[in-house]
């Protein structure tokens, strides 16, 4: 019986080259698997390119709502930001793709799975930790770590040899490395590798520059239930449609751009440009609604674990006991986080306009400067004296 390999296939240059290489080196049937998590996707192109390379089984799975509801939303609840800047758009997508890729491998009794992550990147770790969690006995083939193609030039030569189409970017050169999904778009490589040089405007795909954003501010109201966003401007909407709409609103107002040099898990520094327009609105709105619904201790405990929680996601430990444990802390009292937050958007800025909730966590009566009997100021001196002792 001929062996089978399930390849995470985008239909683009790199994975088309990998598909051909697997055919040449493993004498196996290749199953092309694409997870639709909201990236810019051309299903006809994927099917056409895979068929041209002799693939008979092509699977394109719509996972957009699952991605947002079960992966993005829990991360937003944890306010996960890596190294104070990165909203983890690529990191959070890999665990879901790995999980469903293993499901397909088991369904068709495949011997192995394969991915197109480079040997210098984080994604190879994220994919393979996910593969191990759901299918530890299934072999993993990572071409970038074992083949003789060492550079982009080698890939182009290989593609030309096998008549694999080579896309061009807007400047007519081999493309930047781009990853996108419903939550974000990341761009790396070429001119971005030199941190001295500014990012060219043409690489941005879902946000306009703040300078070109409208001169008039926009308003958006996000509704939350059990700590998850459920509505925009009073209208309930599915998770994927909600994020899709926020991406458009924020992108038009120049919100969500980040230019960073990050510390990769494997020890290399990497410069990239990320666009997370809708996610930037969500994380700001979520912190705002928690401020009027959660008690101090719960909020502070969450803040204490943010860096560790984000690092686990970044490093590919979504399915680890450590992340599951922190998620319980993140979600403690999430049933209390209900209400709406109104945001004003203007040229890359997000301003909190209002927070509305039925929660009694915030008391106007207690904080009012008007004299009231609900707060005993006489106890404050005792409180201060107690903490003086802790200085010693």
Give the helix/strand layout.
Blueprint: E1 4-8, H1 13-26, E2 29-36, H2 43-52, E3 57-62, H3 64-77, H4 93-107, E4 112-114, H5 123-135, E5 139-141, H6 143-146, H7 152-161, E6 177-180, E7 185-188, E8 218-225, E9 228-232, E10 235-236, H8 239-252, E11 257-263, E12 269-275, H9 277-291, H10 296-314, H11 321-330, E13 339-346, E14 349-356, H12 364-367, H13 380-389
Parallel strand pairs: 1-2, 1-4, 2-3, 4-5
Antiparallel strand pairs: 6-7, 7-12, 8-9, 8-13, 9-10, 11-12, 13-14
Helix pairs in contact: 3-8, 4-5, 8-9, 10-11
Write a concise synopsis of the structure shown.
The chain is of the alpha/beta class and 392 residues long. The protein has helices spanning 13-26, 43-52, 64-77, 93-107, 123-135, 143-146, 152-161, 239-252, 277-291, 296-314, 321-330, 364-367, 380-389; strands at 4-8, 29-36, 57-62, 112-114, 139-141, 177-180, 185-188, 218-225, 228-232, 235-236, 257-263, 269-275, 339-346, 349-356.
Structure in words:
- It is a single chain.
- The protein folds into two domains: 4-63 and 94-169, Rossmann fold (3-Layer(aba) Sandwich), CATH 3.40.50; 180-355, Argininosuccinate synthetase, chain A, domain 2 (Alpha-Beta Complex), CATH 3.90.1260.10.
- Helix content is 39%, strand content 20%.
- The chain has 13 helices and 14 strands.
- It has 392 residues and is an alpha/beta fold.
- A hairpin with a 4-residue loop joins strand 6 (177-180) and strand 7 (185-188).
- It has helices spanning 13-26, 43-52, 64-77, 93-107, 123-135, 143-146, 152-161, 239-252, 277-291, 296-314, 321-330, 364-367, 380-389; strands at residues 4-8, 29-36, 57-62, 112-114, 139-141, 177-180, 185-188, 218-225, 228-232, 235-236, 257-263, 269-275, 339-346, 349-356.
- The longest helix has 19 residues, at 296-314.
- A five-stranded parallel β-sheet has the order 3-2-1-4-5, sandwiched between helices.
């Amino acid at each position: 019986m001929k062996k089978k390999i399930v390849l995470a296939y985008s239909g683009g240059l790199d994975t088309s080259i990998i598909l051909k290489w697997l055919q040449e080196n493993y004498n196996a049937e290749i199953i092309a698997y694409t997870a639709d998590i909201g990236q810019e996707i051309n299903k006809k192109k994927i099917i056409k390119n895979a068929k041209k390379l002799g693939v008979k089984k092509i699977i394109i799975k719509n996972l957009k709502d699952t991605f947002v509801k079960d992966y993005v939303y829990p991360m937003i609840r944890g306010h996960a930001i890596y190294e104070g800047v990165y909203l983890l758009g690529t990191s959070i997508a890999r665990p879901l793709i790995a999980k469903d890729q293993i499901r397909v491998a088991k369904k068709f009794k495949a011997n192995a799975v394969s991915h197109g992550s480079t040997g210098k990147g984080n994604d190879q770790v994220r994919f393979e930790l996910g593969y191990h969690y759901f299918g530890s006995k299934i072999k993993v083939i990572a071409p970038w770590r074992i083949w003789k193609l060492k550079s982009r030039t080698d890939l182009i030569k290989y593609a030309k040899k096998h008549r694999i189409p080579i896309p061009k970017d807007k400047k007519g050169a081999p493309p930047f490395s781009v990853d996108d999904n419903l939550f974000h778009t990341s761009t790396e490589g070429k001119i971005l590798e030199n941190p001295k040089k500014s990012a060219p405007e043409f690489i941005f795909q879902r946000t306009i520059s703040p300078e070109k954003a409208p001169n008039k501010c926009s308003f958006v109201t996000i509704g939350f239930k059990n700590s998850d966003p459920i509505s925009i401007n009073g209208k309930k909407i599915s998770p994927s449609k909600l994020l899709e709409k926020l991406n458009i609103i924020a992108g038009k107002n120049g919100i969500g751009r980040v230019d960073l040099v990050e510390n990769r898990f494997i020890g290399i520094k990497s410069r990239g440009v990320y666009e997370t327009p809708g996610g930037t609105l969500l994380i700001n709105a979520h912190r705002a609604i928690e401020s009027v619904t959660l008690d101090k201790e719960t909020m502070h405990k969450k803040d204490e674990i943010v860096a560790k929680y984000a690092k686990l996601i970044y490093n590919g430990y979504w399915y680890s006991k450590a992340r599951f444990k922190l998620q319980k802390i993140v979600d403690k009292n999430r049933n209390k986080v209900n209400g709406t937050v109104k945001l004003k958007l203007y040229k890359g800025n997000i301003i909190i306009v209002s927070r509305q909730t039925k929660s009694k966590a915030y008391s106007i009566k207690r904080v009012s400067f008007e004299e009231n009997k609900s707060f005993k100021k006489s106890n404050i001196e005792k409180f201060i004296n107690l903490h003086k002792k802790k200085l010693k």
